[in-house]
């Protein structure tokens, strides 16, 4: 089995400083004397014999999103991309074992920065099809793999809450290590809902062990993005504010070193729909303003940052940050050198690096561990749900009206129309929002399998219906159109720079099914939508429309105008992905002639770009 370091002592925050219960969960009690506890006579004698300078490594992953094996359940094939990256904890396990062999197990720790249980059909299956929160819960494959590899701690990610709090709790119960969330609080009393931190002991010599405190922080945006799952139950205050609260407590509880595992980016320029007083990406601000932190494992933004150095304004001390690429494509390593002097451990050197998981084979122990679950999910995603008359590709959906995106809109519009048929809103026109989530999505001509639909709609979003006016629909589209670069007539077209402008990701580029419009790229952001029409007539700014919209957008995700405050007339708890699968099963045949056709286009001074 993989090495899991059970041969050296660990100590949680609860047992390190006396057990205290908050909300039924162990948290650290402050014991100021612990930080300055002198060595015993035996320890002092040991210190004379042991080298004063020692080294250790903290390894970290983030945004695993359900990847255990190097497998793509949407294509039913081994994962690959243009850079030939690999994914999965089985690869990470091999890297971790090598570091442990090089350093010694007692000189390593392994942590994660969140977004663990959402992202693949493997984890969807054990949340919805055979749920771990059910009466006879199966083992969760991510828990199985992470326990076997020997993680020491993990922070909560925002996607942990996509399936509701009971699923998070069920996952937490299956872990052999703490799931940390210092800023995940019970709404009723604002006490910790999860263990805020843990203190681990590393025995580096014969003297006093080194105590490494690991603080877990998650994203305040959970309150918006998963409002339906957490409202009234949990609140998520700011990352910086809670770090300022807990770092001194960890020091008082005896931590020599502070490592923060933060599901938050370093210095992203925007906060997509937080609508909160706290920023979404605050790891950089935390490092700069909260004294006492040595290292930060960064998450959430799916970027690769081998090393980032930020000087703390108060102490002048350099804090080291690192973010490994998502999906277990990279492993961050924080390499510490420490020295014991004057009765304390001091950091003398700290650097970080990332290791590429495509340089090693999968750990056969991890592969074997989840092989039965993997096989079950492969069978599930390969169910035939219908046929399609023509191939539908998403390849050009970022800059052209693609039928595959219209399919999402049609399914959503049909679902909302049926739901409102017997209500006072039945006669209002129904429009639908959709975005290109997955650049590799493809529905083949001929047989359509469940995984084809799942690959088109990769998120766990549910469907809602909101009332917007014609003027508000136009504002909504203007906001979305900031995704495109501004082009003068005659400028060359570069598809690499045409989209993703103003740091707008693909999932925040919405088109609206049911209306027709042009996006004039010669115009500045905010005045690009022209010829907006419904059924051949110009849209009346005062007219009312029903917009079928996913819950992420309806709750404010992306910060699109009007929709979050608009009247909600219907909502559904089933994932849009499942709604699409049911729609295809009911139809039997997907015919692009039923929903395709160019309803929006990019233009320059009225002339089509393509």
UniProtKB/TrEMBL annotation:
GO cellular component terms, A-Z: outer membrane-bounded periplasmic space
Cellular compartment(s): Cell envelope
Family to which this protein belongs: Belongs to the 5'-nucleotidase family.
Organism: Kitasatospora atroaurantiaca
Gene Ontology MF, one: metal ion binding
UniProt domain 5'-Nucleotidase C-terminal: residue ranges: 384-564
Stated name of the protein: 2',3'-cyclic-nucleotide 2'-phosphodiesterase/3'-nucleotidase
Keyword Protease on entry: no
InterPro entries assigned: 5'-Nucleotdase_C, 5'-Nucleotdase_C_sf, 5'-Nucleotdase_CS, 5_nucleotidase/apyrase, Calcineurin-like_PHP, CpdB_N, Metallo-depent_PP-like, TAT_signal
Pfam families in the cross-refs: 5_nucleotid_C, Metallophos
Signal peptide: 1-35
Domain Calcineurin-like phosphoesterase: 57-303
Keywords: Hydrolase, Metal-binding, Multifunctional enzyme, Nucleotide-binding, Signal
């Amino acid at each position: 089995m993989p090495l899991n370091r059970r041969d050296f002592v660990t100590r949680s925050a609860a047992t390190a400083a006396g057990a205290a219960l908050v909300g039924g969960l162990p948290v650290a009690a402050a014991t100021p004397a612990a930080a300055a506890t002198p060595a015993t006579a035996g320890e002092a004698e040991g210190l004379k014999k042991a080298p004063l300078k020692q080294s250790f490594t903290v390894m970290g992953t983030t945004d695993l999103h359900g990847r255990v094996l190097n497998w793509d359940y949407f294509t039913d094939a081994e994962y690959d991309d243009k850079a030939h990256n690999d994914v999965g904890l089985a690869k990470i396990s091999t890297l971790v074992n090598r570091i442990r062999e090089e350093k010694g197990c007692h000189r390593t720790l392994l942590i994660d920065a969140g977004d663990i249980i959402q992202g693949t059909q493997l984890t969807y299956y054990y949340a919805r099809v055979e749920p771990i929160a059910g009466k006879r819960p199966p083992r969760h494959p991510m828990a199985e793999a992470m326990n076997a590899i020997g993680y020491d701690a993990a922070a909560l990610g925002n996607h942990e809450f996509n399936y509701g709090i009971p699923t998070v709790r069920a996952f937490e119960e299956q872990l052999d290590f703490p799931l940390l969330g210092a800023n995940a609080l019970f709404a009723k009393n604002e006490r910790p809902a999860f263990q805020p931190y843990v203190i681990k002991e590393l025995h580096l010599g014969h003297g006093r062990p080194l105590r490494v405190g690991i603080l877990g922080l998650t994203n305040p945006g959970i309150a918006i993005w998963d409002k339906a799952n957490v409202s009234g139950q949990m609140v998520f205050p700011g990352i910086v504010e809670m770090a300022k609260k807990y770092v001194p407590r960890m020091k008082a509880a005896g931590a020599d070193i502070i490592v923060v595992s933060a599901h938050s980016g370093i210095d992203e320029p925007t906060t997509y729909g937080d609508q909160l007083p706290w920023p979404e990406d605050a790891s950089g601000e935390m490092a700069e303003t909260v004294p006492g932190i040595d290292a930060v494992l960064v998450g959430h933004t799916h970027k690769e940052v081998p090393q980032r150095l930020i000087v703390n304004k108060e102490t002048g001390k350099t804090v080291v940050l690192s973010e490994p690429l998502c999906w277990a494509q990279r492993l961050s390593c924080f390499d510490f050198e420490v020295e014991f002097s004057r009765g304390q451990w001091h950091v003398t050197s700290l650097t970080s690096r990332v290791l590429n998981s495509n340089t090693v084979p999968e750990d056969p122990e991890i592969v074997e561990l989840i092989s039965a679950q993997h096989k079950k999910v492969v069978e599930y995603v390969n169910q035939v749900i219908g046929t399609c008359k023509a191939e539908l590709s998403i390849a050009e959906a970022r800059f052209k009206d693609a039928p595959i995106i219209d399919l999402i809109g049609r399914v959503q519009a049909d679902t909302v129309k049926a739901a409102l048929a017997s209500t006072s809103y039945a006669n209002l026109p129904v429009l639908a929002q959709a975005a290109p989530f997955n650049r590799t999505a493809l529905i083949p001509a001929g047989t359509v399998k469940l995984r084809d639909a799942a690959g088109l709609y990769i998120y766990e979003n549910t469907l809602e219906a909101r009332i917007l006016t014609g003027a508000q629909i136009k504002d909504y589209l203007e906001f979305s159109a900031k995704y495109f670069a501004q082009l003068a007539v005659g400028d060359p077209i570069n598809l690499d720079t045409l989209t993703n402008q103003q740091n707008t990701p693909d999932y925040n580029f919405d088109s609206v099914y049911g209306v027709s419009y042009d996006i004039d790229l010669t115009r500045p952001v905010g005045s690009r939508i022209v010829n907006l029409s419904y059924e051949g007539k110009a849209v009346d700014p005062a007219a009312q429309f029903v917009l079928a919209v996913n819950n992420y957008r309806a709750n404010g995700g992306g910060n699109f105008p009007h929709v979050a405050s608009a009247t909600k007339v219907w909502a559904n708890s089933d994932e849009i992905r499942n709604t699409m699968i049911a729609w295809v099963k009911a139809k039997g045949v997907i015919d692009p002639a039923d929903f395709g056709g160019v309803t929006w286009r990019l233009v320059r001074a009225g002339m089509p770009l393509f």
